[in-house]
Amino acid sequence: MLRVPQRPFQRNPVTPPPRRHPDVELLGSELLHEGRIFRLLRESARLPSGLRQDVDVVDHPGAVAIAALDAEGRLLLVRQYRHALGEWLVELPAGRREEGEEPLEAARRELEEETGHRAARWTHLREIVPAPGFCSERIQLFLAEDLEAVPGGGLDQDDDEELEVLRRTPAELLAGDWTDGKTLVAAALLATGAARGRETS
Fold first, then answer.
1. Is the pLDDT of residue 116 over 90?
2. Cβ count within 10 A of residue 93
3. Model's pTM, two decimal places?
4. Gap between the Cα atoms of 186 and 64, Å rounded
5. Do 60 and 15 form a contact (C-beta atoms < 8 A)?
6. What gap in Å lies between CA 41 and CA 27, rounded to an integer?
7. Any bridge partners for residue 26, and if so which?
8. Could you tell me what percentage of the chain is helix, strand and coil, using 3-state DSSP and rounding each to the nearest 5?
9. 54 beta partners
10. Distance (Å, rounded) from C-alpha 29 to C-alpha 76?
11. Contact between 62 and 97 (Cβ < 8 Å)
């Protein structure tokens, strides 16, 4: 059984408190680990039915992903090594939000850092929850259009990133053996004409 901590853990200001449903009673929350990007919590909750759940939660600050579509209808993608899987993956440009950063601001930064491009037109497509069984991460998915290469390559990549920029159409992504979830969601939305969001710029 989980114990209720004698004092609340100190939160990193980058991450807002985890979203909790008002009808669910939080019985206990214990900080197990605080890392550079996320923290690991062990929590106990009681549902309105009376059912008790004891769960380990990866508490994530949230992220953005960018479906950057060029004039030929191809998505800008990045190929990078993902150590947790032991594989190189092809993905949309994406990254976590920094402290005080609005989603669109983060999306503009990530697109320039990872691909060396800027976009004149931005549309918020939807929110994606990639692993709700154990992780609080919410990804804001944007469509970026009217792309232009930034002279000199734009913002610097993160020190621990090694990226190769590729271009594929949504149809090519859906027909291939690509595995990244957020990338396939974006490709499906664009390929089926369901990518109707709210233009933000």
1. yes
2. 26
3. 0.85
4. 12
5. yes
6. 13
7. 45
8. 15, 40, 45
9. 44
10. 41
11. yes
Whether residue 127 contacts residue 138, with contact meaning beta carbons closer than 8 Å, is answered with: yes
Instruction: Please give the Cα distance from 38 to 51 (Å, whole number).
Output: 28
What's residue 99's pLDDT? Answer: 86
Looking at the DSSP bridge assignments, the partners of residue 135 are 58
The set of residues, in sequence order, having a beta carbon less than 8 Å from that of 140 and lying 6+ positions away, is 62, 63, 64, 65, 103, 106, 107, 124, 127
Query: How much is the pLDDT for 94?
Result: 97
Coil/strand/helix, residue 171: helix
- Burial zone of 172 (CB within 10 Å; 0-12 exposed, 13-18 middle, 19+ buried): middle
Give the homologous superfamily in CATH for domain 63-199: Nucleoside Triphosphate Pyrophosphohydrolase (3.90.79.10)
Alpha helices in the chain (DSSP H): 103-115, 170-175, 181-191
- Token pair belonging to 7: 């004092």
Is it the case that residue 34 has pLDDT exceeding 50?
A: yes
pLDDT of 22 over the 70 cut: yes
**Single-letter amino acid, residue 64:** V
pLDDT at 196: 67
Per-domain residue ranges of the chain: 1-59, 63-199
Which tokens hold the place of 55? 């769960």
